[in-house]
Amino acid sequence: MSLRKQLISGVFFTAISKYANVVVGLIVTAVLARLMPPAQFGVVAIASVVISFFSIFADIGLTTTIIQYKELKKSELSILFSMSLYLAIGLACLIFFGGGYLAAYYKEPILKQVCQAMSINLFFTTAAVVPNAIFYREKMFKQIAIRSFAAQFLGGVVAVVWAFYYGGIYALIVGPILSSILIFAISYSRFPLPFQYFFSLDSIAHTFKYSLFQFLFNIINFFSRNMDTLVIGKVLGPSMLGYYDKAYRLMSLPLQNITQVITPVLHPLLSAHKQDSTYLMRTNESITKLLALIGFPMSIWLYFVADELIFLFFGSQWSAAVPVFEFLSLSVGLQLVLSSSGSFFQTSGDTRSLFICGVFSAILNVSAILIGVYYFGSMNAVALGLLVSFSINFIQAYWLLYYKVFKSSSLRFFKLMIKPILFSAFLAVLYYLLLVYIHVDDYFISLIWKSSIYLIAMLIFIFLGGYKNEVLQFLKKK
């Protein structure tokens, strides 16, 4: 099967799962947002960031290493699985017994109980790392999609039922806990690996350099992406964090459910061509054209439907989240295109350059967050600062990718951005002029007509902007 056919197949099944999960996630979130106050969402957001941080140590670069080194034997995978189980026990105990200190730091007593409950999630997430990575190495995208949707759906149902019958903050965490248990059970039943109490690392020592820089990048990227939650929660309080987190998560839905359809498929497929930099560069540019075509106009659409999305999904009590969502939505195009770059660093084996990109990005993002919180004292300033930092990071990441990996000028890449950016600017002007004459009080009707303008403009741009053949060529199976 050709790479394009494999890519289409992988994207197809991943897309079905992700978009079905979007629907389930939106329904669950919409229900819970109407039943629970913003402060409880803020508390869970703090706990989630902490759990996500420890999840980096759960992976320690194992997923990308297993995908990259396809020659790893079952005995070597067993060693990695045994490592992950020891890590699972240690990390779960750490978050279970450390929850009290986190609760004292944020002056939120309920955080202790939340962290203790979430330690279950951390244990099973860590234990599933190796069998889950084998799913991707074997390109079992259909099975991954079925597994993901089943866990999301059952977790969402339990969360809603819990909220109606019991209420309280545990309604926000019971779903993720159940999902992690189901994913581990399904993954391990498909790829059972024996546990070894004692083992030697000599046979897998050659993978450490690759996994080390991937692990360091994951740590840097985590702080770059989550420092806003930690600082806003501490300085501005759980309520402000609840508003900010809700806006960020809503902005991330289209972003994640496009990137997480494509990027999980890229590394497993491209790893077969890891020595061909010219092939990798051409593949990157082909994918970039489509992501830029989708992402930059979508940023404008999201900006102009901010009120409608916030009020329709969460209710009028979340109005403070609108400005944050507007600023963050303008970064969607940049983040969407940038999301695929990591796969090319990983495929080429240059995780060191990926780590350098992460350090640069972290410095920019953390600076923007600290200035927004401590100087301006505003979550809106944080969102605007992140928009600026994402823009600068976008430029440096692709300059480094072309310089280090592709051994070519990055100007050819940035030329691909001209048409989508100009069209997005035109779309913004069109919305602005139409809003001078059109004002609809009903949020649903307003969302419909703004979305219709977006879809019509996109179709015209695809046909007149020279993208028709490229879209059809990408979708064509060989």
Could you characterize what this model shows?
This protein has 21 helices and no strands. The chain is globular and about 75 Å long. Helix 10 (238-270) packs across helix 15 (341-348) and helix 11 (277-304) packs antiparallel against helix 14. By secondary structure, it is mainly alpha-helical. The chain has two domains: 1-199, no CATH class; 210-478, no CATH class.
Write the layout of secondary structure elements.
Blueprint: H1 3-35, H2 38-59, H3 62-68, H4 74-106, H5 110-127, H6 129-137, H7 141-165, H8 174-190, H9 208-235, H10 238-270, H11 277-304, H12 306-314, H13 322-329, H14 332-338, H15 341-348, H16 351-375, H17 379-406, H18 411-415, H19 418-437, H20 443-464, H21 468-475
Q: Which terms would index this structure?
A:
478 residues; mainly alpha; 2 domains
Distance between the termini: 9 Å
- Protein structure class: mainly alpha
The unreliable regions are none
Provide the gyration radius in Å. 22 Å
Number of domains: 2
Brief overview, please?
The protein has 478 residues and is mainly alpha-helical. The chain has 21 helices and no strands.
